[in-house]
Amino acid sequence: MFRLSDHNDLFSRRCVLVNGPVIVGAGPSGLAVGACLKEQGVPFVVLERADCIASLWQKRTYDRLKLHLPKQFCQLPKLPFPEDFPEYPTKKQFIDYLESYAKKFEISPKFNECVQSAKYDETCGLWRVKTVNTSGGTRSEVEYLSRCLVVATGENAESFLPEIDGLSEFKGHVIHASGYKCGEDYTGKKVLVVGCGNSGMEVCLDLCNHNAFPSMVVRSSVHVLPREFLGRSTFELAVTMMKWLPLWMVDKLMLIMSWLVLGNIENYGIKRPSMGPLALKNVEGKTPVLDIGALHKIKSGDINVVSGIKRFSRNGVELNNGETMDVDSVVLATGYRSNVPSWLQETDFFSKNGIPKTPFPNGWKGKLGLYAVGFTRKGLSGASSDAVKIAQDIGKVWKEETQQRKQTKACHRRCISQF
Ligand SMILES: Cc1cc2nc3c(=O)[nH]c(=O)nc-3n(C[C@H](O)[C@H](O)[C@H](O)COP(=O)(O)OP(=O)(O)OC[C@H]3O[C@@H](n4cnc5c(N)ncnc54)[C@H](O)[C@@H]3O)c2cc1C
Ligand SMILES: NC(=O)c1ccc[n+]([C@@H]2O[C@H](COP(=O)([O-])OP(=O)(O)OC[C@H]3O[C@@H](n4cnc5c(N)ncnc54)[C@H](OP(=O)(O)O)[C@@H]3O)[C@@H](O)[C@H]2O)c1
């Protein structure tokens, strides 16, 4: 039985009893789970806040973006990339692949459905997932009720905008990297790029290619690795070496390879972390930069490396080392955050930062029918691995229950509303 307050709430919005799991998010992770569930014969509903699949890729990435890992590490389960795709597919090719993936597995997400809250109702043994849809100028609310909830909202759900002293006084243009498309509008301008992850490095490179003058803020340290070593993907080499060698040794070899290809990056103002690149990724989730040309521009002085920011002024910035600079525009390449804590009312499985507490490869299954896909800090390959396991687990229970239902004559399930 529902409590009275819940009961009133239940009838104030449209309720949908979902046959099978609810998947929140129609990015690569949500699509991968959907495809694997199709194969298991399990029905599901995908809820997506945007009006398209893979909204991160379609709406919040820059034009020159390519996958930075070789394609075999980025394809989703059950459908390889087309053979004519290059080793590092472009953003457009990746989106085309995802569109054909959704089509092949007949995945039709419910778009413009932003999940506001989800909680497990012990009285009815169901997840209650509330959404708001504000498309077309009207607001509608729906509550989905389901035995299983698959969280697929991604590690990069929200742009992270740090609070920096004086930024609101700065009179130039400020944008997060998720809104940056191309350097065309910045020609001839002095641009401060805050952050030196893969986004910060590539935005700087793009700005150089459009004759802008980027300065990149490196406030702490970062590992920069060449994307390739002797014609082979560095990532692939690391994966191969990990089969035979301990992680610390692979890290050492990665650093030697980097030194051979890139030289000593500390000569250019980029400090390396004391922990090796793979260890750091495992422990702190910090991704190494795979260099695709920015380092060359740093060496040539086209990208100016600067220290952390003390404060912004109307026309520029004061750095931690006391230096001041005039700046026309700022690009905050300061990363992303998971948004799970803002809507999932659950604290056992997910930590405060919106990532499952249990690390890969065991962070895909919680209690009471809760699952998480794509929070492995291992990119698309980690998401694919989660998706396969989740679908197998749900499929097993589904088959057992379907078998039982077939053996029971009467069915007393009440469907509140259906699509
Ligand atoms: C610039 C950039 C480049 C990258 N390049 C690579 C790469 O080359 N290789 C790699 O392996 N990884 C890369 N990544 C990591 C990237 O996160 C993954 O590639 C991939 O997008 C993860 O898929 P996902 O489905 O888990 O998350 P997302 O792609 O973020 O999809 C999550 C979906 O959930 C939706 N959503 C979020 N909150 C809600 C809500 N409350 N209600 C409903 N829907 C919601 C979002 O709109 C989104 O469509 C890159 C990331 C960035 C930012
Ligand atoms: N396919 C591709 O080529 C590609 C391209 C772009 C991104 N990606 C992926 O997308 C994900 C996000 O990458 P990202 O580069 O956007 O984010 P990121 O790796 O999280 O890097 C964020 C950067 O911002 C800095 N930063 C944050 N707050 C700051 C502040 N207040 N002042 C100064 N610096 C600050 C961080 O510095 P600290 O380290 O000191 O915190 C860090 O250098 C990663 O997984 C990445 O691999 C892939």
UniProtKB/TrEMBL annotation:
Top-level taxon in the UniProt lineage: Eukaryota
Catalytic activity: indole-3-pyruvate + NADPH + O2 + H(+) = (indol-3-yl)acetate + CO2 + NADP(+) + H2O
Annotated SUPFAM superfamilies: FAD/NAD(P)-binding domain
Cofactor(s) listed in the protein's UniProt record: FAD
GO biological process, one term: auxin biosynthetic process
Any one GO molecular function term: N,N-dimethylaniline monooxygenase activity
EC code: 1.-.-.-
Keywords associated with the record: FAD, Flavoprotein, Monooxygenase, NADP, Oxidoreductase
Protein family: Belongs to the FMO family.
Stated name of the protein: Flavin-containing monooxygenase
Species for this entry: Kingdonia uniflora
